[in-house]
Amino acid sequence: MTRVQELLLRLLRRGEGGAAPLPAGISHTAWGELLGVAPRGLHPYLAYRLPQLVEQTGLPREVLQSLESIRRSAAIRHIGQQGLLIRAAQALDSAGVPFVVLKGMALAHLAYPDPSLRPMGDLDLWTRPEYLDAGTSALLEAGLRFPSLRELRSPAAYRAELAPTRVLELPMAGGHLVLELHGVVQSMAVVASGWAEGAWNRCVTARLGGVEARVLHPEDMLAHLAVHCSEHHRFELGLGPLLDIALWTESAGAGLDWVGMADRWNRDGGATWIRLTLALARELLSARIPLEFADTAAGQEEFAPLYRMAREQVLEAHRALPLTLAKVSAEPSLAGRFRWLAYRLTVWYWKGPPGERRTALHVTREALRRIAHDIRHKLPPYLSGLADGSLLGAEYRRRRALAAGRGQLPRLVAEHERQKAGRREG
Question: How far apart are alpha carbons 106 and 207 in whole angstroms?
Fold first, then answer.
């Protein structure tokens, strides 16, 4: 672990007193490098945290100015997102559509010292599948719309109005706000198929700014945060999701029934992913998680490579490759990479929805629109990476190895679960 990484962990780490001592003699260079290592989503929280732990006269002015600028921008954006929540809640309530506020907005109000300290890319709401169409119609009537750019960033066969998650946006000055209405919490459905029914029934009501809405029960929220961080994103978001967990366990406190939760993890699915994530949150950020529910040892030698790989993904998240290159690198074989590229070039851009009749001109026009969009928006990061050296030589090989390791995590989890099952049967 580098000195800058250790500095970041000290700034984020949660202790009994809510703080951890900083190492002595931090250079101006280290403070400057901190912003490059810390995920951008953590910058507002760091702007809040630094004055509590550091004498500001010892900080470079450019670091303070950058953090404060990001915090102000986050506060302004949060006002817009809060307005979006109010508008969506009123529309769905009027239409008789039940919904639950997931992740970011609920965390921002219930776990963070100030809701603007937890930036979010979109507002996530969950409803039952049978209400998805009615909920979408209510939101469209309330002024939201399907994003045009989302169409270009999706396969040609994608239809926004039929997707299991309806992505909508609300235009605003200088951009737009995004809302996702989920008919299924996909991250949980993949590994914890038994989670949804119980979680829906256990939801509680909370005050989120000016809105009273249903949110996940604290124990279901913890499981969702852990699985979303691990299985869904493979730890590529770095320390941000672990900070969510640390603050959530601190906020929920004694209200968490750890024994009961562990039983549900084993019954519903996702136990290995959840324990792995909690172990990282406990080690790296001193999250208030009992050791027996985040123990990576316990004689389980096969857990060690899994834990090391996940830990590396968290600490090196700033080395992420551009998304498409990361997906290709995550394929375990050369043949798999060729298949991925072939699908992208021959199907993704060209093949439309099943049963839809399209002329050759329409197919070609739509494919060229998508290709032009990708060239315009996805080529610049590659050019930038070549210019700064991050996509060249040893640094590129390091980043490619991280992406490949991310692709191996599900296999290691499955192997761990097989060996664990074998020990129980033996």
Answer: 9
- For residue 385, pLDDT beyond 70: yes
Going by C-alpha positions, the residue among 211, 182, 246, 325 that lies closest to residue 42 is 246
Tokens of 406: 């991310």
Mean pLDDT of the region 322-339: 86
Cβ-proximal residues to 227 (8 Å cutoff; 6+ apart), any chain: 187, 188, 191, 192, 270, 273, 274, 277
Radius of gyration of the CA atoms of the chain, in A: 22
pLDDT of res. 58:
67
Residue type (1 letter), 219: E
Asked whether 129 and 189 are in contact (CB, 8 A), the reply is no
Per-residue model confidence (pLDDT) at position 299: 46
Residue pointed to by tokens 């045009």: 148
pTM: 0.91
Token pair recorded at residue 408: 């191996």
What is the pLDDT at residue 149? Answer: 78
Amino acid at 393: G
Record the tokens describing residue 112, joined without a space: 């963070």
Condensed to tens digits (0 to 9), the pLDDT of residues 242-263 reads: 999 999 999 998 889 999 999 9
Query: If 0-12 CB within 10 Å is exposed, 13-18 middle and 19+ buried, where does residue 140 land?
Result: middle
User: Is pLDDT of 381 > 60?
Assistant: yes
Average pLDDT over residues 32-55: 85
Residue-level pLDDT at 386: 93
Does residue 1 carry a pLDDT above 90? no
Query: In whole angstroms, what is the distance from residue 222 CA to residue 224 CA?
Result: 5
| Alpha helices for 256-296 (secondary structure H) | 258-268, 271-285
Structural domains in the chain plus CATH codes:
3-71 (no CATH), 92-305 (3.30.460.40), 318-425 (no CATH)
Given this model, what pLDDT does residue 300 score? 61
Taking the C-alpha atoms of residue 207 and residue 94, their distance in angstroms, rounded to an integer, is 19
| CB distance 220 to 257 below 8 Å | no
Q: How far is CA 386 from CA 329, 376, 394, in A?
A: 17, 17, 13
Give the whole-angstrom CA distance, residue 41 versus residue 58.
Answer: 24
